[in-house]
């Protein structure tokens, strides 16, 4: 079902690109036409299709996007419908727009929090609370073309506190080779199940997902956990659905710190902390 939804969204995006301008797009008509090509879609998938189409048109209207030319290379997407029938959707690929560059200034807030612990101790507890991504399981899910509900269950099992580690490095160990003092470990932590809820609106969110974090000792020897406040990154996309997920990630980071017994300042609380 997830693959079918993805194909429909590509079809919708292609049809949007073929219009003379964003003001010419009738979202309801476009979505209904796309959905009629499928055997069936669950209500949640229909909602996702509608949200993605509306988000695309909103972006075009905000940026003044218009189609300039189209390269004559067509291709077809083929997928298996819920009842076993194959469908094909055609589109033209690689369209050029008049807007070849955009610059979006935005302010980012960096959190740097005293963990109240020794470096090695806090790093060990953090890495236990934020497990490494189970890449072998992810590879099996991709190979099996698992449905999205199965992916969600796997992510929940892999990330008991909402996050998993996609990458890490011992920066301090490397810098000590140059004679620099101090300890520092850097991480990319996130959750693809959460990221997908932003990705469906704008794949560019992956510039900031997973979240980059660092555990380090400052000039006073205090062990700190530093991370950019997620909502201040994701709000730059000016899409309410993405902003809402960014605010949810704020709360999840705070919850993780509480799990790690970090004294979280009251100033970080913008709302209730939910797991």
TrEMBL record:
Residues 170-230 form the DUF302 domain. InterPro entries: DUF302 (IPR005180), TT1751-like_sf (IPR035923). CDD domains: DUF302. This is Uncharacterized protein (DUF302 family).
């Amino acid at each position: 079902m997830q693959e079918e939804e993805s194909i429909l969204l590509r079809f919708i995006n292609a049809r949007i690109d073929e219009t003379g301008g964003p003001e010419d797009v009738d979202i309801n008509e476009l979505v209904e036409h796309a959905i009629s090509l499928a055997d069936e879609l669950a209500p949640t998938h229909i909602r996702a299709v509608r949200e993605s189409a509306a988000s695309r048109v909103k972006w075009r209207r905000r940026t003044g996007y218009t189609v300039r030319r189209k390269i004559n290379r067509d291709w077809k997407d083929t997928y298996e419908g819920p009842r076993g029938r194959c469908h094909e959707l055609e589109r033209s690929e690689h369209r050029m727009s008049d807007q070849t560059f955009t610059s979006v200034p935005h302010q980012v807030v960096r959190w740097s929090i005293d963990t109240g612990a020794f470096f090695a101790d806090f790093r060990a507890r953090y890495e236990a609370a934020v497990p490494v991504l189970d890449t072998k399981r992810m590879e099996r899910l991709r190979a099996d073309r698992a449905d999205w509900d199965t992916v969600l269950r796997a992510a929940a099992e892999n990330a008991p506190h909402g996050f998993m580690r996609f990458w890490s490095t011992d920066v301090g160990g490397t810098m000590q080779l140059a004679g620099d003092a101090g300890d520092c470990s850097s991480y990319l932590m996130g959750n693809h199940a959460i990221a997908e809820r932003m990705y469906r609106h704008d794949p560019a969110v992956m510039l900031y997902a997973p979240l980059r974090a660092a555990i380090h000792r400052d000039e006073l020897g205090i062990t700190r956990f530093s991370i950019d406040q997620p909502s201040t990154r994701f709000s730059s996309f000016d899409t309410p659905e993405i902003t809402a997920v960014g605010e949810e990630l704020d709360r999840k980071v705070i919850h993780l710190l509480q799990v790690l017994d970090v004294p979280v300042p009251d100033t970080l609380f913008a709302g209730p902390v939910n797991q």
